[in-house]
Amino acid sequence: MPLKAPADFSELNEIMKTPRQTDSDASHEDRAKAIRDTLRDAIVDRRLSPGAKLSEAEVGSLYSVSRTIARSALQMLAFEGLVTSERNKGAFVSNPSPEEARQIFTSRRLIETGILQSAAENMSAEDFAAFREQLKKEALLKEDHGAKARREEIKVSGDFHLMLAEVAGNAILKKFMEELIGRSSLVIALYGKTGTSSCGSDDHFGILEALEAGNLDQATKMMLHHINHIEADLDLRPQSSLSLKDALQL
Ligand SMILES: [Zn+2]
After folding, report:
1. Ligand 1: distance of its center to the CA of 59 in Å?
2. Ligand 1 centroid vs 46 CA: distance in angstroms?
3. Which of 6, 105, 208, 212 lies 20 to 30 A from 22 at CA?
4. Which of 68, 93, 118 delimits the end of a domain?
5. Distance from residue 130's CA to the centre of ligand 1 (Å)
């Protein structure tokens, strides 16, 4: 079977121009990550709408970086499911369907119960202390309102789930979780009914208490209840599009 050719020659040219492993590789990655983070915020906050085009050239010039760095940032977001790449068309903000949203939560129920089991075996006294600190931060953000606080709250509440994955000590599961949390945040921003993350610190606190009491069954039950609750708070009914006349209220 012939080797697969690169997507196009301009891509090949870029690769040829890229210097081999240099000291700047680390800063290249750092800059790509910083751009990824600001783009992710804009997507989850819906300042960039689903379907919006993200051109490498524009991202590069806005952040004064090379197209190669802009491309790395977009590829990281594509890996997280927040950006969709279409061949010959470029990158777009993902527009997850209601069905995809359901699949994300089905995946979370399967993976997070497994994570909980491994985490329960590994939790140290220091870990419990770190989780309690984290939940304090969440509770404080909950009292705050406004778009910025909401964005922070979605992010911080996702961190609770990522911390469990970290303690579980399986790097591959943790990567899965990073992707699932990123996708969940987008889906919550798109379909959330109440305008808050609904990934509440009360539920998190209950899960932590059950783990501390050594009651894995109870922690698992609460985790499933928690994920069901987040999903139930989404409005995933098929949206019937208004006629132009109705949309314009004529
Ligand atoms: Zn949660």
Report:
1. 32
2. 21
3. 6
4. 93
5. 16
Residues 180 and 105 in one domain: yes
Distance 205 CA to ligand 1 centre (A): 10
Determine the Cα–Cα distance for residues 176 and 112; give it in Å rounded to an integer: 10
13: CA distance to ligand 1 center in Å? 45
Radius of gyration, alpha carbons of the chain: 21
CATH number at residue 63: 1.10.10.10
CB 155 within 8 A of CB 137: no
- Buried b or exposed e, range 82-115, using 16+ CB within 10 angstroms: bbbeeeeebbbbbebebeebeebbebbeebbbeb
Residues 222 and 120 placed together within one structural domain of the fold: yes
Q: Quote the ligand 1 centre to 154 CA distance (angstroms).
A: 9
Note down pLDDT in tens along the chain; length 250 residues: 444 444 444 444 444 444 444 557 778 999 999 999 889 888 877 788 888 899 999 999 999 999 999 999 999 999 888 899 988 889 999 988 999 999 999 999 999 999 999 999 999 999 999 999 999 988 888 777 776 776 677 777 788 999 999 999 999 999 899 889 888 888 887 787 765 556 776 899 999 999 999 999 999 999 999 999 989 888 887 655 556 666 566 6
